[in-house]
# Entry
Amino acid sequence: METKVLIVDDSKLARIVVGKAVAALQPDWIRVEAANADQALALLENGGIDVAILDFNMPGRNGLELAEHVRQRFPEMPMALATANIQDEVIARARAANIAFVSKPVTEEGFRGFLSGAALKLRSARR
Amino acid sequence: MTETVITLEELERDALTELVNIGVSRAAASLRKMVGEQVFLSVPSLEVVGRKLAAALIRERESDQLIAVRQEFEGAFSGRALLIFPEANSLELVRAVTGGELSSDEVREMEEEALLETGNIVLNGCLATIANILRKPLTVSLPRLVRGDGKHLFDASALSADSGVVLFLYINFAISERDIRGYIAMIMDLPSLEALKVLVGEFIERIVGPESATRAN
# Structure
């Protein structure tokens, strides 16, 4: 069964960076992109998204608000917030909603833990 | 899904905005440690404008006296970075970073030092992150305090009479529970801006790879 990962970032370049890290670590995963929260929600509602990686600082609704919203709708979906904004409040809110934290600038290494955890979770859920 | 065909110029702007975003987000995290309260950032908007227009852009938003912490940076590209906020906010910022334990007199006494230190942390955080990601070291001077209106700040910051181009990064930062907001601006002359454009291009190529960069072009 295929795994589909949603990458949400207002920066095209940041989406490329995240996409490359995902491709290197999980080459079989299908990647879809959204440039803002509304696009992301539309894609999520269409269904078939297994994992979501969200940028924090975006115009309109920020990544954390989006993640909390998505969390209510999809309680089990592995989600990560990517940001250089490592303030205690941001981290605490992400943790409270069971959202992983990946620091920017994004590297393959920084994503490894989250992606392998997500893959494991999806495999066991599908068993 | 978003369309992948974009021009390189858009990607350059995108890359630069993202670099600044990362730099400022880190700086905000440092500022949060200093003030003990969450620091909110807006999404940066980035414009390359002449000095006069930069002054006008600030004036549109702020009619009052401003205060700025200014630092020179030098390296593959050179210029000046400014952390700007309304002068009326300055004592409140000092109170925030000193933990509210000082008397009014002490706050006034500490004002200059506290502002310089705050500016130093925010601007250095931003510049160092950009330098690291572009892989070109920058040396950053000691901070200085400048007071005046928008026109004065950019005039006093011009590197030379005509060639002052401002990479105007407009970022609103606000500290929760306190009435504090500010902006960050980087001023460069044309050669520096061109050097920066080349470095950003190289950075994009490292990420995207030559093949995709051609396609994006």
Helices of chain B lie at 8-35, 51-61, 87-98, 104-134, 150-156, 190-208, 210-216.
